[in-house]
Amino acid sequence: MRRALLLLPTLLAAALLAGCGSSQASPQTPTFPSKPPSRFQGTVVPSTPAPPIALHDASGRKLTLASRRGGWTLVTFLYTHCPDVCPLIAANLNQALRLVDAPKRNVAVYAVSVDPKGDTPAAVRAYVAQKHLVPRFHYLIGSRAQLQPVWARYHVAAVANGADLVDHVAYTVLVDPHGKERLIYDAQLKAAEVVHDLRVLTPAS
Question: Do the Cβ atoms of 56 and 141 come closer than 8 Å?
Answer without folding.
Answer: yes
